[in-house]
Amino acid sequence: MESTHQATAVFNKMYSKDGFSEWLGIKSIKTELGHTILEMEVRAEMLNGFGVAHGGIVYSLCDSAFAFCCNSYNQISVSIQTSISHTMPIREADIITAEAKLIHQSNRVGNYEVIAKNQKGDVVACFHGVCYKKEQTHF
């Protein structure tokens, strides 16, 4: 399977079963081996008591970008460690883009970086994820 086609096929298969990413309104902007860009708009029901996006919203977007990115190689990969740093508030109607990139991988472990930005290009969060690559494949 050609690499970009493979990554897209894996994304489509995973997304079709991912009700939470669908609820978030995630759209795929780019899907390649080891590189994924997702986008979503922040809605009123995603805000916390301070009137800004709940921290779990941008975390979830970044976590989804990480998951689609590390699975793009057609090897079932699961998260074993993640962390996020929130750099500025996210508001209703903000368009958030999360770009995930492979940093390093071995036979069984992959390290990924996800940078989330708003529509102005301001960095709103930095996420790091480590995945474990199983022997099973998606296809």
Structure description:
By secondary structure, this protein is α+β, with helices and mostly antiparallel strands. The chain has a single domain, classed as Hotdog Thioesterase (Thiol Ester Dehydrase, Chain A, Roll). Helix content is 25%, strand content 43%. The protein has 3 helices and 6 strands; from the N terminus they run H-H-E-E-H-E-E-E-E. It has helices at residues 3-15, 19-24, 55-70; strands at residues 27-32, 35-41, 75-86, 95-105, 109-117, 123-137. Strands 1-2-4-5-6-3 form a 6-stranded antiparallel sheet. Strand 1 and strand 2 (35-41) form a beta hairpin. The protein is globular. The model has no long low-confidence stretch (mean pLDDT 97).
Question: What is the topological layout?
Answer:
Elements: H1 3-15, H2 19-24, E1 27-32, E2 35-41, H3 55-70, E3 75-86, E4 95-105, E5 109-117, E6 123-137
Antiparallel strand pairs: 1-2, 2-4, 3-6, 4-5, 5-6
Average pLDDT for all residues: 97
Query: Over all CA atoms, what is the radius of gyration?
Result: 15 Å
**Would you count the extended β strands for me?**
6
Number of domains: 1
Summarize the amount of helix as a percent range. Answer: 25-40%
Low-confidence stretches: none
CATH homologous superfamily grouping: Hotdog Thioesterase
Q: Tell me, what's the shape?
A: globular
**The CATH C-level class name:** Alpha Beta
Biggest sheet descriptor: 6 strands, antiparallel
In percent terms, what proportion of residues is strand? 35-45%
Instruction: Give me the number of helical elements.
Output: 3
- Helix-strand string: HHEEHEEEE
CATH architectural label: Roll
CATH names the topology as Thiol Ester Dehydrase, Chain A
Find the structural class using helix and strand composition. alpha+beta
